[in-house]
Amino acid sequence: MNSPVSPSSLKNAHDINVSNHLCLANARLVLADQVLLGSLTIEDGVIADITEGDQVPDGAVDCAQDFVLPGLVELHTDNVERHIEPRPKVDWPHLPALIAHDAELASTGITTVFDAMRVGSIHSGKGRYIDYARKLADELLAARAAGMFKISHFLHLRAEICSETLLEELGRFCAKDRVGIVSLMDHTPGQRQFRDMTAFKNYVAKKRGMNDAEFAAHVQNLLRLQERFGAKHEIGAVAEAKRLEAVLASHDDTTAAHVATSAKNGVGFAEFPTTREAAQACRDHGIAIMMGAPNLIRGASHSGNVAAQELAEADLLDIVSSDYVPAALLLSAFRLAQIWSDLPRAISTVTRNPAEAAGLKDRGRLETRLRGDVLRVSLVNETPILRGGWSQGARVS
């Protein structure tokens, strides 16, 4: 397994506007293994004290027994790409897009995000994908350094195996970029996420405006790219992840053989296994299992793959990602609490577990000396309502 990202190398990702003092009192504190009525105090951006009881000290925020839980940690979101390309072939100005993306995540309770960016382009055929990750990463890192964001942002490079320029694009990143995650993505049609070719056609043809002939040509081009570059790109991407000291993730494992390869490559967590067989193999290999919040909320995968609820009920779910709906992350945690009858366990899937999977030891739990990333949440007809969010004790929502 690759070495986890060093917290010391990540801690400065968002250290602007640290609050000197905040006390959230008379709250139901969601701790690692229990819900405790008490108060939580943040000093200089760090949790300084946790006290049991319903007392409300002078100057404290009376939470009226709302839940207080750690800020949500998001490992894989397509949201930044949605903001920079709100419609096909529409290139939105990147800095305003990044700021809007940051504000949207903060408004949903996410206080740490690994922004997923595709590396690996296709310059042939109608289904072209241009190289954008290095430029966007530079803009994101500059905005982060200037204190423009409300929450913590890190890089997640989605290494597209079925592409023409993957290794060249990965080679443009280095240690100073502090890449947190590299995920191995193979979207070759007919396998993994897109075993169902009808689902693949509905997804790609609609998104790219392809007719039947253009779609067929696109499929053939992808198959040729996989045959030509697939093995080379997978080996190279694993090596690049080690060079960057990033956590390695797999994507859309479908069979036990896929998972065995993931384990051999040193994968730390599996994004969206598509079958129960693959999820069970992940558990057997000690690989953390991540599923999408939209899948859980909808009760099914939009690609026809295994339902997240089925894996949750089988004890085969460790981490939840908002994927393509940021607001789904908080909702999914409370949905899991109903399935498991265990709120702390459910909240861990969107806080502690993703933080640990990404190698972040300074957040994801309500404990003294950890970052003051916290949320105040109330329940209205079993729907969680975010009443306030704080990053290092500074109000962000």
From TrEMBL:
EC number assigned by the record: 3.6.1.63
Organism: Yoonia rhodophyticola
Claim: Coiled coil is one of the keywords in the record: no
Enzyme class, broadest EC rank: hydrolase
GO MF terms, alphabetically ordered: hydrolase activity, acting on carbon-nitrogen (but not peptide) bonds
Biological process, per Gene Ontology: organic phosphonate catabolic process
Protein name, per record: Alpha-D-ribose 1-methylphosphonate 5-triphosphate diphosphatase
InterPro entries registered for this protein in UniProt: Metal-dep_hydrolase_composite, Metal_Hydrolase, Metallo-dep_Hydrolase, PhnM
UniProt xrefs under Gene3D superfamilies: Metal-dependent hydrolases, Urease, subunit C, domain 1
Domain of life: Bacteria
UniProt keyword annotations, A-Z: Hydrolase
